[in-house]
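fold-stage: in
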Amino acid sequence: MTESRVKNTTRNIVSGIVSQVINIIVPFIISTLILYVLGVNYQGFDGLMFSLLKALNLAELGFSYAAVYILYKPVAEGDYQMICAIMAYYKKIYRLIGLAILVLGLLLIPILPRLIKDDCPNDINIYIPYLIYLSNSVISYWVFAYKSALLTAMQRADVINNITTVIRLFMQAIQIIILLYFKNYYAYLIILPIFTFFNNILVEYSSRKLFPQVVPYGIMPDDAKAGLIKQIKGIFIGKISDVSRNGADSIFLSALIGLTAVAVYNNYYALCAGICNISFAIANALGASVGNSMIKETVYKNYNDMCKFTFIYSVFSGWCTVCLCCLYQPFVFIWMRGNTELLLSNHNMFLFCVYFYAITMNNIRNQYLNGCGIYWELRIWYILEALGNVVLNLLLGHLFGITGILIATLFTIIVFNFVARTNVMFKAYFKRSPREYYIQHIKYILATLVNVVLTYWVCSLIRLDGILGLGVKLIICMLLPEIIYVCIYHKTKIYNESLSWVMSILKHS
């Protein structure tokens, strides 16, 4: 990786981690306030609304990923005439996307009551929060959304992260005040679209200041449009599979079991997703550098880089998995103030930990999938993943509740996401068998399993309860897993290469 790519990656990693850490802590506080101040049904209802709007974002057709991919080549070549033409085209498309989300959202209004099995909070009109969430989603596309694609492709995702962090902090501080002093759910929601508007305005201003030479004008060549449309078709199908896996769980739980089950599930999912987002921020910080490298470097070098990044990521993801296994239940027990009815069983908690490891270990590979733009080649596997997840969610969710939902999700992640997408990428880009790559992953899984068992056993010896017990276990989880990983890997070549790369990142931070 060149000096400039290291510098940009470092900057993106630092800003991404800071943004995601704040994005875990403050929403956690808000979710807790909704639970304590308004009640568990409000918390479940809020999770359902969020999942519905996540599903509606299918109207984006995965355009943001394709938009960044198409920009990689002209950015690497410094072709600003092409960049300007692409941005003019994106400006029109994003407005159409916002309109599509608005229309689809309005069409869903008549079926909202059918998605909730038990009663909503008595003093709430389900349509008002839904329309507020919908307006927030539409504004996010109508107001300068296309400028985010430019900053990402230019390896300046840190600008987006910094702006989003500051805006969210202000917004969430106001939401906390509203929940504490006014206890009004509508007032808590209404500021969402306002701050989304200001966030996008600041992104546009920063983009214009950093890259004044990029102005949306000109006509995008027909061959480039055709390539973009083809990629969008593939990504759209992929977005369906992602939404069916990540966004539909709450909808199925609400329809099959009720809002309380949604609240319990979402409490665990929120903690898991928060750490997932930190790990994703690290992987995503590599995205533009990976795309640049795949334009300029050899396939052999890119394969070796991917293996190195995968190893580093396996240590980080494995450590996070260990922490989740050991700290999940005691933390949620304290959070729920000892209410065991709002705790999952241990086997469901462990399934969440497996879910975390499985989904995060795809993140590095996904950066290379995005870099080589083979979305269309993956379309069949996207469809199978979506159908498999929906069918298994309905069947296993009906039979086994939350356990069934988690098993369905894990099956589709492992079979249709990890294995299938990896096979296609190796065939299309690396032109080699993925056997060596799979063997590496098996070794990483075994190392993580050893780490989980040993650390969990040590933590089980701690007889302290409450915050003190959680603190002691946290210290153990901070130190012991890393010692175990060093003992396992310290004599390997990839460990020393990866350590040198990490030190170079720290040097530039």
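fold-stage: in (second)
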Amino acid sequence: MRKPNRRILPTIIGVSVLTTLAANTAVLIARGHDGDPAPSPQEKQARYVAASGSTRLSPGAVAPLGKRLTPHVLVAAPSALPAATIAKIRAAKGVKGVEVVDAVQGMVAGKRVGLMGVDPSTFRNYTPKPTAQSDALWRNVASGDVAISFTMGSDGGVKLGSQVPVGGKQHQSNLRVGAYATMGIGDVDAVVSHATAQALGMPTGNAMLISVPKTTPAAFIKKLKKVLPKHAKAVAVNPQLDFPKAGSGNAPTSHGQVMTAAQVQTVIKAAYSRIGWPYVWGGESEAEGGYDCSGLMQYAFARAGIRLPRVAADQARVGWVIPYSKAVPGDMLIWANDPTAPGYISHIALYIGNGKMVVAPRTGLDVMIQNVYTRNLKGAVRVSPKLAARLAG
């Protein structure tokens, strides 16, 4: 579900700088399917924080949770953002908070992901509520652990409590995986403390999160361009998705706004051709040995000349969200499986009719035809090729 097509996180020193970032959010705590027993609160916590009592830090090493703020805009640059620029943005009209972080595209457990260095005491205020509330999680990060996304951990096979290499392509250090956690920032699958970030050689203070609750991110970003350094980029964080309501869900059926019958057939045939390929977290081609759920969608639709964004949350925005009862072959099905980020689309599949779908489920399973399960199902997406191309960038 990762490898977004838009990134603004520069890479760790020694790796070429990237200039765009996906603006979608979050990760899973517990993905379930129909028939799975509901995990107890203790089981959820065990999956969320690993070895939380083993840190040598005192309870006061990380400040208690303060007032939570929703991040609306992410800014990142190849090097440290000027103090004067940060001060000017803090004082700008409508800004309720600014959190300065270290941000790169780095290597974690053999995967290139968005990696942030943060102050656990203040950054926690900008994360989804369950993540923000976990004192143990932030103490783990402060003590030198890395917190990773659930999709990277569960789907990607990176175990809680394990030691994994973190850093650039040339130089990496082993860190313990201290937690699975939703951070609420697209393409950020790993978080460490500022001190750990500096030890890894990450740039200092080259990114920031901005909370502007009463201003549209697009309007604020337009104003930001006047004060940001030349190579700094800004994107919106986690745009909302309108889910279908009872009795709603009408979508266009022609006039070039949706796929043709030939395109639908091509997409389904392409998805069928991947059946039997392994699930690979971040996979989007044969070269990577397999596919994840959104990588499979990107591959299949590309065969019909339709460009999709890379991650499920962005793919859910490439058309009209309609109720599953109105789904037809060629629609994508979307799930919000993340209990820590209600409404965030974390899983996606291709509907082929008669209650069946082609899907890349998770690590250990191959791309397959599966019965559609309705637990956490948020509807279907009637794809608009034009909108898809625009969002794919």
